[in-house]
Amino acid sequence: MSLANKLAEERRARLAAERLLEQKQAELHAANRKLGKHARALSHEIHETRAEVQTVRDENLRVKSDLTEAHQKVEIAERRLWHSIQTIEDGFAFFDADSRMIAANDAWLAVFEGVEAVQPGVSYIEILQIITEEGIINIGEMAPARWREQMLDRWQSPAPEPEVLRLWNDHYIRLSDRRGHGGDVVSLVQNITATIRYEKELKEARRRAETANRAKSTFLANMSHEIRTPMNGVVGMADLLMDSDLSEEQRLYASTIKHSGEALLVIINDVLDYSKIEAEKLILHEAPFDLERCIHELVTLMQANARDKGLDLLVDYDLFLPTRFVGDPGRIRQILTNLLGNAIKFTETGHVLIRVTGVPPAADDAATIHVSIEDTGIGIPPDKVDHIFGEFNQVEGDRNRKFEGTGLGLAISRKLIKMMHGDIWVDSTPGEGSSFGISLTLPVAAPEDTADPVLPRPAARALIVEPQTASRDILERQLVALGLTAVSCASGAEALTLARPEIDIVLCDHNMAGMDGLELAEALREAGHTMPIVLLSQNTGYAEQDPGRAHVQAVLQKPAPRRALIDTLATMLPPDSDAPQARRVMRVLAAEDNKTNRLVFSKMLTGLDIELQFAQNGREAVEVFHSFRPDMIFMDISMPEMDGKEATRTIRAAEDPGAHVPIVAMTAHAMQGDEADILAAGLDHYLTKPLRKADIIARIIAACPPDARAPEPAATTAQAG
Ligand code: ADP
Fold first, then answer.
1. Which of 359, 407, 635, 680 could form a disulfide linkage to 644, CB 3.0–4.6 angstroms apart?
2. Distance from C-alpha of 693 to C-alpha of 230, rounded to nearest angstrom
3. Closest Cα to atom 11, ligand 1: which residue?
4. Cα 187 to averaged position of ligand 1 atoms, centre (Å)
């Protein structure tokens, strides 16, 4: 190779080498730059990481101290909790899901009296075993295995019922176990010995109180019996004394004796009834009864009081409502007596109206009846309306008592009504009057087995003379319902202008201003009128003695019971023109061993159109029953030889089927149980001594059979004028 070539070649190689070098240098430079950049980034990163590490380290330290603090807190809380658990008097233990004890406080462990095996770790089954082996719990007659089984069943149930256990030392504990989170059980033991003892003491105290209460009831029964028997003599004889010839002064004394005696009996009865209801000793005696008759009997009884004050007593019994119901007639009568008595007591002028309405029986044969007793009296201030139904509560305070009374009447009535599932309320406007209402739902009873009343000749024309609007309306409606046509007026003078021969009958009020009923009758006769005249009087006795009585054909007690009115009209307006049938006299038998009481009884009935026979004991009563065939019997209960109950049973057994002679008990007993006993013996009614004339007469009138003459001549008998 030439030199030149060699040189060229060398140059080329050098150039190549230089280029390579340059290239490598550039690469190196680039790499250096990259490296620098990396190094920078890296150092930044290192810096950051270092900072982070520091933060984490700081955090760690803090968490560590927090944790220690938390641990300390937990420990304190746990200590406090345990301390509390130890302090409470009740036993407290935890068990895990396998029924092993985790912990128990001293009170819980104390039950085991230091048996060492009972400690954390012990199982519930072992505990039960220890209990039966050591006799810690008094399990009575039960076999230990059986007891353990029962306790274990209980323990394993999802929600064990609390259990009371008796310890060997007669202490009582109540065990309450609660299953919690993850199957843990918390077991609580309370010592309830004090409670159990207290309960026992209470039971004992209650037993003693009940014994005392029974003793009190017996005492009351005896007392009432002891008081009633002589009171029968006092009140009865005073009554008779007043019928005899007395000077004004003597009459005042006699009437004071009678009224004081009666007032005393009212108080005794109220207190007795109230204590009976309180002791839940009062039982209702349900029987069929006639509500309308019951109300009229009541009105007859109260008439004298109302008349003395110049008040009108009115009865408005819904014509479409049945009259016979099943209920406790005695108690219903008692409620009505109280309401009616109050209405008369708290009314000075005007009237008292008893209104009976009702919802006629539905499919179940029970009717809801409303009885309202409306007065035109002093009324009750609105703020006292609730108060008066309370015990011993009256509108007036103790300081301004004007009216007699115990303040128990309405409380008793309310309780009785409640027992009958009824309601009682009052609406009142002071100065205008009050309206007491009761509502009762009672089964309707079958009609009585007496003959249907003979209805008066229909389409007859009646003239009603009655100043009192409410009374007039009631009478008018009754006559129209019976098929009569009625013309009404308010005074005698008007009646004289209305009277004409076509009028078949005149019904006039006795007590009218200007011209009274008897004067009107006389004037009608003078004017030549011959139609029958019926006088409605609040005081029939008084009317009977009036010379003007001769002008009227009948005197009716006012308000007239529907039945009495119908019977009278039937006699006055006979269905055919035949004379009314002659009726026989009613026969009454009274069995009474006490001579004084026989005298009082016969004196009370003087003037009645009845035939009265006495029997001196039960045996005689049975004999007289057969020979005399009485229409009704009054029967004393305690009599020698054969008592009244026995006699009644004998009579009932001998009676013809279908025949049923009403028997009314007369007794001084007034306590619960006696009544039930007496009625169970077959007696129908019950009168307590002292007997009241009006009660006896009301019973006789109620029992008068259709073929007998009305016992009270003034009441229903027509007398040819
Ligand atoms: P008593 O009549 O024996 O005082 P009650 O319990 O029967 O007891 O009545 C309580 C009170 O309610 C009466 O004292 C009276 O103040 C008031 N009262 C009851 N009925 C009426 C009435 N019809 N009019 C006005 N006040 C009445």
1. 635
2. 16
3. 394
4. 61
